[in-house]
Amino acid sequence: MPLSEPVYRSRIRHVHPCDHDAQSDAPLIDAIYQGAAYRFADSTQADDWFAAGQPLYARDGLPNVRALEREVAALEGAEDAIAVASGMAAIAMTLLAHLRTGDHLLVGNDAYCESTALVQLMAHQHDIRVTRVNLNDRAAVLAAIEPQTRLILAETISNPRLFLLDIPMLATLARQQGIALAVDNTFATPVLCQPLRFGADLVMHSAGKFLGGHGDVTAGVVTGSRERIGAIKDVAHLYGPVLAPMEAWLTSRGIKTLHARIRQSCASARCIATWLATHPDIAEVRYPGIADSEQATLARHLLPDGGGAILAMRLRGGHEAAEAFMRALRTIPYVPSVGGLTTIVSFPPQYRSCESARGKSWDGCDRDTVRLSIGLEAPEAIVTDLQQALAMSTIRSRQAIRSER
Hints:
Aspartate Aminotransferase, domain 2
């Protein structure tokens, strides 16, 4: 069946993300421009170049970095983008560009632990007040808003609880209150959801995860209007979280296979989540679209092409069963990350960067919870390893209980 024009453009953009030179002798793949600075005839030429918004130095943006920015902006339907050295740098530059001393920030109560640790740090160092709230609860958000509220920090699919954000509701509320909405779209990717279409002001990515997709790069990207991205670029120019040309090139390379990877991983993840939901040793499965009717309805609206590649499950045997399960896996390695070609397992992220929170479990994710990032293996192979590991962990848990008696 022929693809509709919007779908065709969306899919082909992953393979041909930028407008390349049409000359016959141009390379199919972009070169890597490793130089950190530009050469000019004299200071007048340099001044004219800078006045035209062109880079003079690596912190201004080099060719591979700018190419990546254009690619991700196109994928998200944004006017502009800025690429930096990590996903956390993307969040940090966004916060620094939009918040001043005395301002107020709203952040999801199930946000990524390091994001929460970062806003706590900023609260102490920059006298910014922070309120954590259920961002899907309209009444709670309205009650938390203050006259000084400037920004809402959210996630399309929260990490680690895997709750889907009601972006249209939150974006409408934020717009009515004159507040900017920044959404971390790392888990959904622009293949599955484009938050700007639903009213978000900024969209962020930990680009080394699904965009890069090969586990060989660390990068971050923020997309949005030219005005907002310009403000972030001004801050980033001074703070200097520079993305290197090679990392930008690797991320662009990964984007070329993004749609195919996400499509396969989503199909496998849904199959595996459905199987796990019926397993007697699993107490709960968290995956967008199957968790409950409310989230399923929202998923059909926001994620019509799939619920993503990440799922979480709680084992009935508690923390010991979860540990035994992960040790019993034969082909699925423990890796504290997501988004690569290989299926990996880990505990959900824990507090670690904030002294007051160190060692605590994350809200709603006890240590009986295991997170899976589904890769490109055949789902039958993944299920086979999960099945034998669950059986082994059950045996070990029963043995441990008998030995305690």
